[in-house]
Design brief:
Layout: E1 2-3, E2 7-12, E3 18-23, E4 44-49, H1 66-80, E5 85-90, H2 92-103, E6 108-114, H3 122-133, H4 142-151, H5 153-156, H6 163-171, E7 174-176, E8 182-184, H7 188-198, H8 204-209, E9 214-219, H9 227-236, E10 240-245, H10 252-255, H11 257-269
Parallel strand pairs: 3-4, 3-5, 5-6, 6-9, 9-10
Antiparallel strand pairs: 1-2, 2-4, 7-8
Helix pairs in contact: 1-2, 3-7, 4-6
Length: 273
């Protein structure tokens, strides 16, 4: 499905259902939510889409601030005619969801943010740069790429306990190009700009300004979202409640899919008035 002729997206569930949007994280795509969407599409009409710079959507040179991603979502909702939504965002998608909910509170019924904080972090940005720079794209073929991630990638990051899982995730972002080479599915320059711009300024004012019920989820082993920042988020706004998922890292909806589904569904359906 093309949205605004610029974004690739997928719709699931009844047209008469309440509207639910999932925003993927950095280097992700709409496909990241395929293990989650079926649990909601019985009741909700669910939208997932590749955000700018990702997957099959537009890949402009600039425009990778949370404000830009939020404006994309506003235009997409306008085209679909969706006036009220439930909004879930993971990692980068969580930052984008945070800004959208803060700027357009009249549109968001409830907000769920998965494993991302509102603080600045040059360390996180450098970590992403190091990961991408360690991958010698383009490869001659997908089989060569597969061999690299299976046999070499983990050894390049000996201090990262999740290097194998990260390598598997990165490999899913390798596609065969028209020339027969294998290269990134996403726009690398845009990814790095999104990583930099997403954490260029802190978003604490937006956290404190949220007016809708909000669920903030953290994986107990997450490096990207420190526990002390998680606790600070919970103390900053009475509209926010937290869920600590164990054992889990940054990708809670992958590591503990059923618990993630259960917690989000309960939150969306409970009466919070």
């Amino acid at each position: 499905m093309l949205i605004l002729e610029k974004f690739y997206g997928e719709l699931a569930g009844p047209e008469t259902g309440e509207k639910l949007v999932f925003l993927h994280g950095l280097m992700g795509s709409a496909a990241n939510w395929r293990g989650v969407v079926p649990a909601f599409s019985d009741k909700y009409q669910v939208l997932t889409y590749d955000q700018r710079g990702h997957g099959r959507s537009i890949q402009p040179e600039n425009g990778y601030d949370p404000e830009d991603f939020a404006e994309d979502l506003r235009l997409i909702l306008g085209e679909l005619g969706w006036q009220k939504i439930y909004l879930v965002g993971h990692s980068m998608g969580g930052r984008n969801a945070l800004h959208f909910a803060y700027k357009y509170p009249e549109i968001v019924n409830k907000l769920v943010i998965e494993d991302i904080g509102p603080d600045t972090s040059e360390v996180a940005t450098r970590r992403i740069e190091d990961l991408l720079d360690s991958v010698p794209t383009p490869f001659a073929s997908r089989s060569e790429a597969r061999s690299f991630f299976q046999n070499q990638f983990e050894g390049l990051h000996p201090k990262n306990p999740r290097a194998r899982a990260i390598g598997q995730y990165l490999y899913t972002n390798i596609k065969e190009t028209d020339t027969g080479l294998a290269d990134w599915r996403f726009f690398k320059k845009g990814i790095l700009r999104a990583a930099t711009r997403g954490r260029a300024v802190d978003r604490w004012a937006e956290v404190k300004g949220l007016v809708m019920p909000t669920l903030w989820i953290r994986g107990d082993e997450s490096v990207e979202f420190p526990h002390e920042v998680y606790e600070q988020v919970l103390q900053s706004n009475k509209k926010i409640r937290g869920i600590l998922v164990s054992p889990s890292g940054h990708w809670v909806h992958f590591d503990q899919t059923q618990q993630f589904i259960d917690e989000v569904r309960h939150f969306l359906e409970e009466n919070t008035e």
